[in-house]
Amino acid sequence: MDLFKVYPLFDVEIVRGDGKYVYDKNGQQYLDFYGGHAVISIGHSHPHYTARVTRQLEQLGFYSNSVQNPLQREYAQKLGALSGCEEYNLFLVNSGAEAIENALKVASFETGKSKVIAFKKAFHGRTSAAVNITDNTKIQAPINTRFDKALLPMGDIKAVQKQLKRGNVCAVIIEGIQGIGGIHVPDAEFLEELAIACQENGALLILDEIQSGFGRTGKFFAYQRANIQPDIITMAKGMGNGFPIGGILLHPRFEAKYGMLGTTFGGNHLACAAGLAVLEVLEQENLMANAARVGEYLKAQLETIKGIKAVRGEGLMIGIDTGFPIKEMRKEMLFEGQIFTGSSSDPNVLRLLPPLTISVSDADMFVSTFKTYFEKHQPTLVKKSKAIFKRIQDKFQ
User: Fold this and answer.
1) Rounded CA gap, 233 and 283, in Å?
2) Going by DSSP bridges, is the β-strand pair 14-18/21-24 parallel, antiparallel, or unpaired?
3) Of 269, 284, 299, which one is at a domain's C-terminal end?
4) Is 160 within 8 Å of 194 (Cβ atoms)?
5) For residue 385, is pLDDT > 70?
6) How many domains is the chain built from?
7) 122 within some domain
């Protein structure tokens, strides 16, 4: 049997992680500025995380949601206190895509409608309903496009209001910060206008915080820079530091009914232990403040590099728009500079999603390495170098 090869793979085999570093099978060390798609929030193999998960595994790894699980209640209370969302109710699942599916299902149950408004460059997942509201037709099979949706320009409140007035929209969904789309930050004012428009037209506002949540932006959720209270918040990625866990936070006005939602593995004992360990480390090590401080410094240093088109993002969720395709530069940064970075659906944008534990010195190391390869690949500098070389050749011929 062989693998169903749907992933383009780098020729590197990572076998170990420690804090902000990962190591391949040959012992080569790499600075991890990608965190496996923003999953590694508190660093690889954090001792508190490892100990808590190990202790739980030795006691009980799993039993079904048909019995009492006090760890779920403990997790909900800790999450509410740290996130500032104490009044919400929690439903635990396994992944970001599952969180989106359940959020859309609740919205449709609540409103009796099925149309969804999302935004251009959005990414919400690869499963049935989630992929229909993702701005990428290449990953949508015919079965994935069975309900009506509108993909609108982010920031265009009039376009949203026009769609909402038709009366057939169950939800508006927006990422706290667009991740795969190239790190685009919605204005606080736009988020506030969305909340009002949804309330006025009987639609729900869903905040997708799967990549931007759990302290990555310097706030627990990225939307918290605006004065809004979403109807539903979706979570995953950094929530478990590598252990599969996701969830949705539901406004208290929603009434739960037996059988309304369900999951086999969601909220299992081991997942809750992993999730609790993440929350405990976030709090004990003040990692949200660290993400804000180091992220601000990193952005400021990147902005001093001449030729960069734009540096976008908040905290440690940063996109560097180089103005040219980054594919080859990113490879060289990995195999020569020993730094992992991320790509996006925009071929010119390098995505940075490091563990929230990185330091200013780590930021300096990244900037120094990035600058070397950026200047090597920057088209204007490449052309200038070739022109100088040609003039030297001509002179001696």
Assistant:
1) 21
2) antiparallel
3) 284
4) yes
5) no
6) 2
7) yes
**Per-residue pLDDT band at 379 (split at 50, 70, 90):** confident
Q: Which backbone phi and psi does 152 adopt, to 5 degrees?
A: -110, 160
Contact 151, 118 (CB under 8 A): yes
Type of residue found at 288: M
In angstroms and rounded to an integer, the radius of gyration of the C-alpha atoms of the chain is: 22
Q: pLDDT band at 396, cuts 50/70/90?
A: low
248-299 pLDDT per residue, tens: 999 999 999 999 999 999 999 999 999 999 999 999 999 999 999 999 999 9
Q: How far apart are CA 135 and CA 332, in angstroms?
A: 29
Edge to edge, the sheet with strand 89-93 lists 89-93, 246-250, 232-235, 204-208, 169-175, 115-119, 149-152
How far lies 155's CA from each of 144, 189, 383, in Å?
26, 9, 37
Closest CA to 83 of 220, 246, 237, 287: 220
Q: What residue type is 244 in one-letter code? A: P
Amino acid 252 reads P
Q: What does the block give as tokens for 255? A: 């009434």
Range of the domain at 338: 14-45+286-383
Long-range residue pairs from 50-55, CB within 8 A, at least 24 positions apart, any chain:
52/273, 52/274, 52/276, 52/277, 52/280, 53/243, 53/270, 53/273, 53/274, 53/277, 55/273
Higher pLDDT, 346 or 381: 346
- Category of 97 on φ-ψ map: left (φ > 0), alpha (ψ -120 to 50) or beta: alpha
Same domain, 29 and 170: no
Q: Residue length, the chain?
A: 397
Q: Are residues 103 and 183 in the same domain?
A: yes
